[in-house]
Design goal:
With about 300 residues, the protein is of the alpha/beta class. It contains 10 helices and 11 strands. Strands 1, 2, 5, 6, 7, 8, 9, 10 and 11 form a 9-stranded mixed β-sheet that branches. α2 packs parallel to α5 and α5 runs parallel beside α6. The relative contact order is 0.15.
Amino acid sequence: MQEEPENCPGVGTESAGFSSACAGCPNQQICSDPNKPTVDPGKVLVDERLKTVKNKLLILSGKGGVGKSTVTMLLTRYLSKKFPDKNFGVLDLDICGPSQPRILGVENEQVHMSGSGWSPVSVEDNICLMSIGFLLSSCDDAIIWRGPKKNGMIRQFLSEVDWGNLDLLLLDTPPGTSDEHLSATSYLKSENEKVKALIVTTPPEVSIIDVRKEISFCKKQGIEIVGVIENMSEFVCEHCNQSSEIFPAKSGGAAAMCQDLGVNFLGSLPLDMNIAKACDKGEDITQFKGKTVEALEHVCNSILSSCPI
């Protein structure tokens, strides 16, 4: 793996290529060239690699624990069954807490290198996945990296993975509005195509507050917000099939927030124990029947109206 220096001055700065942090960087010669391009060379590589990917969708939330990874998996599983002739990819951008290998049921698989780059792991005939979880010697290994090193890893995922022809690439992100989000957004931005994002929240105000910040981040970065999903809106008992509100939406929840901020509300997903168990086992959730899968169909149809594949 190539690694960027921890204190990279940035391509567009006067010290680019001349700073002590540039020593050993594979891009040092390019950056020190007086006629160097003003565009990050990594961006050119990403554009070339992703030119066969029709749609890219960031799964975001300012709050941790709202279920971004689960929602990413749910959408991928459902859409892949709904459109068996389409190809879907998942990129796990949560460098410090990769969970997609487990919830997609390919935790023990390995990534292989070929002449065209890393080959993502096949989950189903029309689903592939790339995650740093495949590059660790053990699932207990901790990733203790500073921002620039994580950004370098994201660049590699976007520019050195042979995604092939994809109709939709879903990017599962960590919480917040910092390094990983800025890096992914800068590499995905294009003159001809806007970066699109799906935002996940839960009903309580403690979550809504942080999600409002994520919406502000998207607007400042020019990211098109497809809409907001309210996850864990209610709990469905697996024994009596009755619903309970375990996370009260005292301020009106996601629907009220979306109305206030002028953002599309895509719908709510109930918390279902069968779905939770399936995530731990890496099972296909589309085999289950219940309110969550029914709600998922409504949410996916809303997404497709704004982000057709």
